[in-house]
Amino acid sequence: MDGAQVIPRHQTAITRPHLSKPVSLALADGILRPELTLFDYGCGRGGDITLLQEMGFTAHGWDPGYSPHAQQHAADVVNLGYVINVIEDPAERAETLASAWALATRVLIVAARPDWEARTVSGHRHGDGVITKRGTFQKFYTQEELRTWINKELRYNSVAAAPGIFYIFRRTADAETFLASRTRHRAVSTRQPRIRQALYDAHREDLNALASFIANRGRLPEPEEMPEPSDRLLRGFRSLNQAAATLRTIIGSEDWDRDLEQARHRTEQDLLVYLALAAFRGRPRAYELPRDMLLDIRGIFGSYREACSRADQLLHAIADQRALNNACIRSQIGKLVADALYIHAAAIQSLDPLLRIYEGCARALTGTVTESTIIKLSRTAAKVSYLSYPNFDKSPHPTLSRSLRVDLRKLDVKFTDFRESTNPPLLHRKETFVALDYPGREKFARLTKQEERAGLLLETTTIGTLSGWEQRLKDRGYRLAGHRLVRIADRD
Ligand SMILES: C[S@@+](CC[C@H](N)C(=O)[O-])C[C@H]1O[C@@H](n2cnc3c(N)ncnc32)[C@H](O)[C@@H]1O
């Protein structure tokens, strides 16, 4: 058989959805870094080049079958990946190796198929290899054979990178640096993080988009939920799952797992509240739900039916004032007093789902009360009040302007206007109503400490309204300068 004319060598090139083994190994080993250029000699369909370019690398290549007119040029790293094994003529094989080496200013990567793969390929012998059923040629190398051949042809000592893969460094110092790094770390344990770091650097923006999706929803997206980033990520990683695993390595598994768990918990609670409240207007059927919500439900509860049954359990508890009272007592957030739990409207989402549903039932009657600052959840009767304190942020002790009380048993809504009142109720200890991250919370807490030290918050019966509080300040010789307590005699 007359080699090149007859044997369709180019047919050995496969479409690569992922980086080839020698290229991904070079990334993992730090041989190929973003600041270095790569030339892929015998690049086939150019899969490695495209993927590397997408990762931000400067990568080009040439192939006699696919890109014969591409320019051959020197590069820091040259890859000769699974080329020599498809050339049936030993002399041309050696020439090809020499040509690739001539372009490599720092390192040449040579990959060839190892001998144990011969078993998986049937065909008939041809020269020192076989002609496969598809009519292509394959030469399988033992590790030693490949090493000796490279060293003899190039007169350089190659370094085995993996079975069937060798690095040939132009400078001895580079070879030694690589070998030293390999003895310092165990190869297996360093490869993954390194390649992950390289992949992370290359896909930073898309990985960040993936991370924020996961942090919001507590689950992986379906590719169609973030089509463009997914598309790009799926070229660098085998799956979004693997991309997420890379994020976990980079971010640290403990932080990642904790954030994920919190996100799942939040999504779970949001869905339970939504599904419980949806029961009042007639729950949609599964196919009527938005697709992303259905995916959340399946990801977290397993099925829509299971999610609805969990939401129903909460709905039953709503009718039980004792269960509501217990939830108020257990609440980590809000100000608990004898007959109610008070909470800032911005923190309502952080409440236990049962209390959110309690409040949601009231909102179903009133609609959103936009000007409400504080929400009062009664512990003793099924009543929710929306209280408006327009000066909540600015005033150290804001006064009540309006209230809307919803009686869930009587389905009755009562409005009270305090704007003309000369002695409206007012708030103390503002930090107790808000979430930990509420702006100004520390300032509120500092004032409370000052007021406690000054004994102003004892005997609370009279200080709950404006005139009682002003009298208390006066009696004890204090006044307020913003959120600061000052002695009347003191100068500011
Ligand atoms: C198995 S493919 C490998 C392609 C690519 N490096 C990869 O790993 O996906 C072998 C390639 O070697 C190319 N090839 C054949 N003879 C060559 C030669 N003398 N010099 C360079 N490339 C050659 C073929 O056209 C084919 O695309």
UniProtKB/TrEMBL annotation:
Source domain of life: Bacteria
Gene Ontology biological process terms in this record: methylation
Residues making up the signal peptide according to the UniProt record: none
Entries under InterPro entries matching the protein: CHP04096, SAM-dependent_MTases_sf
UniProt entry tagged with the keyword Nucleus: no
Keywords for this protein: Methyltransferase, Transferase
GO molecular function, one term: methyltransferase activity
Protein name: DNA phosphorothioation-associated putative methyltransferase
Organism, as annotated: Asanoa hainanensis
